[in-house]
Amino acid sequence: MALLEIRNLAVEFATARGRFRAVDGVDVTIDEGEILCVVGESGSGKSVSMLAVMGLIAWPGRVTADVMRFAGTDLLGLPSRQRRKLVGKDMAMVFQEPMSSLNPCYPVGWQIAEALRAHNAVAKPKVRDRVVELLDQVGIPAPASRMGAFPHQLSGGMNQRVMIAMAIACNPRLLIADEPTTALDVTIQKQILDLLISLQKQGGMALALITHDMGVVAETAQRVQVMYAGQMVEEQLTDSLFSAPRHPYTAALLDALPERAMGRARLPTIPGVVPGIDDRPSGCLFNPRCRFVQERCLTTPPQLEGPAGARARCHTPLDAAGQPTGVAA
Description:
The structure is a single chain. This protein is of the alpha/beta class. The chain has a domain at 1-33 and 40-81 and 223-285 and 300-329: P-loop containing nucleotide triphosphate hydrolases (Rossmann fold, 3-Layer(aba) Sandwich). The chain has 11 helices and 13 strands. Strand 5 (67-70) and strand 6 form a beta hairpin. Helix 5 packs across helix 7 and helix 7 runs parallel beside helix 8. The protein is globular and about 70 Å long. The N and C termini lie far apart (44 Å). The model has no long low-confidence stretch (mean pLDDT 89). Residues 6-254 form the ABC transporter domain. It holds the Pfam family oligo_HPY. Belongs to the ABC transporter superfamily.
């Protein structure tokens, strides 16, 4: 049985123009101990999907799904008090911006201890020792003295390590990391990624890593879900996705990698932007930017189809040579 199972997830927000569906029909499955990468451009719905899993979509947002189950527990029908017992304990999240996620008014040690106290993770006399142990585990030097530091007294990389310490404090079964390296220097980015993978292996927890960096995907993921404009457009094992992407959007993302553009005069790009509330095309949402667009792509929305573990939302998914199937030459 999967640790996390979600079917047909949708997230809507009320706007002046009516309800806008930011996430539409997304399926997510994560097994115990698995590393799943969710990849896509900014605005593709990656973060919103995972915030919905954590129960962090506030009104006027609305979350619906056919199935939303964690470790056999139905999250949709779970009372808020019971949901709070799961969040931070069995499932935790590292947010994108540590400086906006940590409370500037409290020392970082107090904030980590709060997570331990909220879930009765350790006996009260041992809370301080556990906080020091966690800070040391995530690579913060002189952890005992850093407990009393406020977020503004630490670097961005240190604050992100504090966020990770807080997330793993109760030994969660599922850790969601939302672009944990976005605001960090390149050298610090690798340290944070290595730390997450090390912690995942040590604790055997499942890791859902949200990113737009295909290099990170190649180094970390066992399986990849690609999102575009609120929809999942492809799902594959990592090696298969990099060797033979089935959706034109995935292929375009891979073509834009610098290492694949060696010898070219210019780095390939994807024209246009992810459509918003005012410019949603009919048919396939990717059709204005797709080099393989066909007539039916302009009128008929494609479905997510294909064998298990190799699905694509495309009328003419790409073959091993990178050419659309079912199209006359």
